[in-house]
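Q: Please design a sequence for this.
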């Protein structure tokens, strides 16, 4: 075992690939903008929505799958199609409204020929992502994304390393450029990521709040014995004092009970005990915003926020424990 040499090899590979990416960044030109434009416009045809078909063989095929997944997750409908399977029937998945992005370092893979021919026959926009500007793929493509011809990081110059890194990076560049073109918001992004940590952090207050029949509502003319029953039955650590129209007047928490503890507490009116200016939040706010308010309020420990809409109408409550349970911390 020679740890020093292993580290030297790693550094050499990383620097070689970083240098290649810098070269590619310097070479980005009008063809990139044309590719973004073609993909963006494919979804706006009168006949219906188009999709981006990403294809490649071998290691380029693995990269093509990753690019398709990234584009799909950022709002561009994308699918990976295996060129070999396309030759045996999957060509029918591709329509005249689609755009094909084909990956090949050499641009001369025989397996790509049927798919290239299909795009030419049916006038389907073909974008080539290749390292060979003189290849068959580049020759027949409508738009050519050509990355610099640099040696692979493999010492034998054979294993796809630098070339696949540049392909992945170009795919990311396309995805982000399209995302920017669409103006995709974090809330829209969550639609494509309902699971996982990112999806959790983008959950809205309306998705986490307690609402409807689960709310512990107490009429304003009630005595504290009714508030205590509501606190106990709903077990949310809070009671909401409302008027005859359901408008919120104030809240009663465990803390309010402790501050007003006395022998005659249960015979007092709820309006004399309630806090009339509770902290509130909108239902369309992110759950992490609610968590931030509850955990960073100066001088107080807040476990619950009241959810109010733009008109000031009561919508529900969101609790600290609900945010923690959803994995927002």
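A: Design:
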């Amino acid at each position: 075992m020679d740890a020093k040499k292993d580290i030297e090899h790693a550094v050499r590979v990383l620097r070689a690939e970083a240098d290649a990416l810098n070269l590619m960044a310097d070479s980005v030109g009008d063809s990139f903008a044309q590719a973004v434009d073609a993909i963006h416009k494919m979804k706006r045809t009168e006949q219906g929505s188009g999709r981006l078909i990403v294809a490649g063989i071998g290691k380029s095929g693995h990269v093509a799958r990753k690019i398709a997944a990234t584009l799909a997750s950022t709002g561009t409908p994308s699918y990976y199609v295996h060129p070999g399977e396309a030759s045996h029937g999957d060509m029918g998945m591709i329509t005249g409204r689609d755009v094909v992005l084909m990956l090949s370092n050499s641009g001369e893979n025989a397996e790509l020929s049927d798919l290239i021919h299909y795009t030419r026959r049916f006038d389907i926009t073909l974008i080539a992502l290749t390292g060979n500007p003189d290849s068959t793929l580049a020759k027949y493509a409508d738009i050519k994304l050509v990355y610099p011809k640099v040696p692979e990081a493999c010492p034998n110059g054979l294993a796809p390393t630098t070339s696949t890194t540049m392909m992945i990076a170009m795919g990311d560049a396309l995805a982000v450029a399209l995302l920017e073109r669409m103006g995709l918001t974090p809330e829209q992004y969550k639609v494509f990521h309902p699971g996982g940590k990112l999806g959790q952090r983008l959950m809205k207050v309306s998705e986490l709040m307690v609402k409807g029949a689960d709310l512990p509502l107490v009429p304003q003319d009630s005595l504290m014995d009714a508030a205590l029953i509501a606190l106990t039955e709903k077990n949310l650590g809070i009671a909401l004092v409302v008027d005859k129209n359901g408008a919120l007047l104030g809240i009663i928490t465990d803390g309010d009970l402790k501050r007003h503890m006395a022998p005659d507490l249960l015979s007092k009116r709820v309006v004399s005990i309630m806090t009339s200016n509770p902290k509130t939040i909108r239902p369309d706010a992110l759950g992490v915003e609610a968590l931030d308010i509850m955990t960073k309020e100066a001088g107080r420990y807040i476990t619950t926020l009241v959810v109010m809409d733009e008109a000031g109408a009561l919508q529900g409550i969101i609790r600290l424990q609900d945010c923690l349970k959803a994995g927002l911390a």
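Q: Thanks. Anything notable?
A: The chain has two domains: 3-184, 205-325. Residues 3-27 form the longest helix (25 residues).
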